[in-house]
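Bench log. Compound arrived from synthesis this morning; before running ITC I wanted a structural hypothesis for how magnesium ion sits in the protein. Inputs:
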Amino acid sequence: MGLIVQKYGGSSVANTARLRAVAERVVRTRREGHQVVVVVSAQGDTTDELIRKAHELTPNPPRREMDMLLATGEQASIALLAIAIDCLGEPVVSLTGGQGGIYTDNVHTKARITRVRGDRILRELAAGKIVIVAGFQGITVEGEDYEITTLGRGGSDTTAVALAAALKADMCEIYTDVTGVFTADPRIVPQARKIPVISYGEMLEMASLGAVVLQPRSVEFGAVYNVPIHVRSSFSDEPGTIVKELTLMNGNGNGTETGEKEVLVTGVTHDTNVAKVVLVSVPDRPGVAARIFGALAAERINVDMIVQTTKAEQETDLLFTISRDDLPRASEVVRRVARELGAKDVLEDQTVAKVSIVGAGMVMNPGVAAAMFQALADCGINIQVISTSEIKVSCLIDESRVVEAVRAIHRRFLEENAPGPVRAAATGAAATTAAAAPGSARATASTAASSMATPTAAAGSTSADPQPGATGSAAGTW
Ligand code: ASP
Ligand code: MG
């Protein structure tokens, strides 16, 4: 008998039939002798619907009120699931995030969990109950105002893993509408395969780079507290993908549990929720980058790729990427700072996308990046910006080419007829991979933050490929 945390996403509890199916699975797990804590998301598209309603009133609603509004989605689903479980005759109690002991900071709509108090949940479990906790929400304790907060889109994953860590659960199961984590989004790459086992470090990169099957923060929690996470489908009993601690020597996430890592690339991800901003001709002196990125950080805007190029004496261009959703706010901030600094211009581009390869095996193998660039070159796809870490290489490209790019890269590294190990493919261009820090092969949560950018094409230039390709799909839910 163990303690299992099960998290069900919005599609898994979308309607009465689905709620009943989830209730049955939960009850089955309980009757197998486990203690069960269930975390649920809002039903179906509820969160999107609530956001849409607020945006009908104003494009910029107060964030505190957004939290008040969005938290209702999960509050409805916990009660409905509790009712469905009660119908099956099993003792059950539903708890809001606050009642479940999820304490956060006070940054509305992007709050971070600061502490989890498990005593209430443990008490209910000890009384023999199934405990259902609202995902995605928490409460502030500071000043005893008990403000309701939310953890950012997809935050229920983080609630589940944080609870699993605090309660020392044996497993955290994340139930979704796909059967696991794939080597690429199967909706655009039919040859994509399910990855049976993946390391926290690789999963964190995959999640951060566009595989929205898990909120990246939940993977960080898993890594720090060593909580095994099983991503699987609530629509079947098929085993999914296990996310756990892996070293280079004990597995490669692709089926071999022992032996030296042979698979260099574990997955290909893409993200079309990307915008590029360029500050043209800012003064080249100490403190400038700190000013710009400090102002963005103060607004909690996450910056991804950053490239600074020296173009003329005492002048540089600064390019960075952010999520497209953040562009309106970032634009305001950057234009203000640009004016203060005397920059010549600010350019914005929302027609870019990022394709990435992730794999713990690439750290020891030169030529992986070169092989990726070659796959893009063979399609005539221009690379605007490159960034690397120990276990990933990302390229910013034109959004219209993203499907083609993902397919070509998947074919190069992950399909039957792939040309094989890339060691032989190392060419002069492999020197670029020197940008990847040669540090420890064991990826940690910090790798995402340590990525560096390497300029390629002139910063700020738009893609030279006007070819109208397939339109990029949104970042996949896979
Ligand atoms: N309901 C929230 C969202 O749609 C949280 C979640 O589903 O994890 O983002
Ligand atoms: Mg989700």
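What the model suggests: The radius of gyration is 23 Å. Residues 3-177 form a domain with the Carbamate kinase fold (CATH 3.40.1160.10).
ITC booked for Thursday regardless.
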